[in-house]
Amino acid sequence: MSQDKTALVVGASGISGSNLSTLLIANQWKTYGLSRSPRSDIKGLIPVAADLLDTASLTDALKDIRPSHVFFTTWMKHDTEAENIRINSALIRNLLQVLSPYQSVRHVSLVTGLKHYLGPFDAYVKSGVLPVTPVNEEHPRLTLDNFYYAQEDELYAAAERDGFTWNIHRPHTVIGKAIGNAMNLGTTLAVYASICKRENLPFIWPGSAAQWNGISDVTDARILAEQLLWAATTPGAHNEAFNVTNGDVFRWSTLWYQIADWFGIAAQGFNETMRPLDGRLSAYSSIWKDIAAEHALIQPDMNKLTSAWHTDLDLGRPIEVMTDMSKSRKAGFTGYKSTRDSFFELFEQLRQERIIP
């Protein structure tokens, strides 16, 4: 196997990292998957257990690994943006400092997201000036603290020090399978719909009028993986930031009813007020345990499957949000996925793997 096709996927247990690992292995890359609790269900993935905040354990875990490419797909959520900046910048800084003496790294890819344009969690779409949509890579940074900016700055500094090339990837909401992921809109909606079906409840839209009526897009985890591999192996795409979405647009006012139809339940759309999912869903945790027992599901703890707070954040935006893919298209990336297929294929996978009934 070529030495320049050795990947270290940081966050290999998450939605983005697991799909990327699968794609890399299919393309004959030697692939290491680093996380605190490494996955063992991806055939060909070499697990690496390490804590990115513990440089001693990180040094030991990586002492015999010489990656040519690093794909950074993880982050840690904290209560304030100041803490998000402190911790998440340290994750990247520690990793690249530990790898630096070996001088094996030729390229580093960093996955961030649209909060680059919309603002951090504690000031989300509240900067005083709402972004012009579609958002594109030419938009300047907001005048707000943002851990994505801190991550980028760590990447730029390490690239200058060690001489590797880089890419930054900014997906919209990522749709794909993962258990225990902090931001998982697709699985959250699948669990909610499954509860609605069992309890004969309406599938209630939780978000804003702007999101209900406006145009939106999302990012299938497999499309993100394709763009990560494409950019890392295309010299003309190096040292650039790229938005990445499925390539289509949709309205939640249509897709919400299509999701309800897939589950065979009745839906309620926007009714002049937001009805956040977080509080409502948490009340159904005991019902989910009953559903899991009845159907022999693999995860009876609803909190390990859902992230209603993040779903509310996405669906409650006061503006429509869509993403300009022109820069990526001009550079040669042609990946595309139907958003309806993204959701329905995810639901089918969750059902086949006994995550939902």
Automatic annotation (TrEMBL):
Short name of any one Pfam family annotated for the protein: PRISE
Domain PRISE-like Rossmann-fold per the UniProt entry, residue ranges: 68-357
TM helices/strands, residue ranges: none
PANTHER family the UniProt entry points to: 3-OXO-DELTA(4,5)-STEROID 5-BETA-REDUCTASE
Protein's recorded name: SDR family oxidoreductase
Organism whose genome encodes this protein: Chitinophaga rhizophila
